Amino acid sequence: MLITTRRLSDSAEVCQASSLFRNAYAEAPWYETWTELAAHERLLELAGMPGRIAVGAYVESRMIGITVGFTQSNVRGKSLYIAEVVVEPYYQAKGVGRRLLEVMQQEAKAEGHVGAWLVTRGEGRTAEFYRKLDFTQSESLRIFNLML
Predict the structure, then answer these.
(1) What is the pTM of this model?
(2) Which residue, among 43, 52, 57, has the nearest Cα to 14 in the 3D structure?
(3) What range defines the domain where residue 7 resides?
(4) Is 32 helix (H, G, I), strand (E, B) or coil?
(5) How far is it, in rounded angstroms, from Cα 82 to Cα 94?
(6) How many Å apart are CA 89 and CA 108, to the nearest integer?
(7) How far is it, in rounded angstroms, from Cα 18 to Cα 108?
(8) Which of the residues 106, 113, 132, 147 has an alpha carbon 20 to 30 A from that of 7?
(9) Which residues form the N-acetyltransferase domain (predicted)?
(10) Per-residue model confidence as pLDDT tens digits over 66-115
(11) Count of domains in the chain?
């Protein structure tokens, strides 16, 4: 099974991942039910972000994974906020997510980013995945939610 990765330069390519997005989020640990429209709107929103970096993973011509991030500036310079890392359930734990993030990091470094960050569950297999890739959990920052 040959898996290839490449940067997605076109917003339409990002939006093609809506079924992949729905399938991945329906599984553990998320168990989220996304409609096709909601998934498409989420990806369209991300595709239009300034400073977007998106990378797709493919088996032949079929997309099996995608990661999308965008630039956010802070006191240290440009950081990449990684908004989504999505891999088709069958291909999870087979190196696809790792490869997507490696390519994304290379692209971000080439564009002058000094770091990357993301939001995910604090424990479990997802957190362990990011720890294995040298992401560290912030000791000082927390996410606060407000339902409107």
Answers:
(1) 0.91
(2) 43
(3) 3-132
(4) coil
(5) 20
(6) 26
(7) 24
(8) 132
(9) 3-148
(10) 999 999 998 999 999 999 999 999 999 999 999 999 999 999 999 999 99
(11) 1
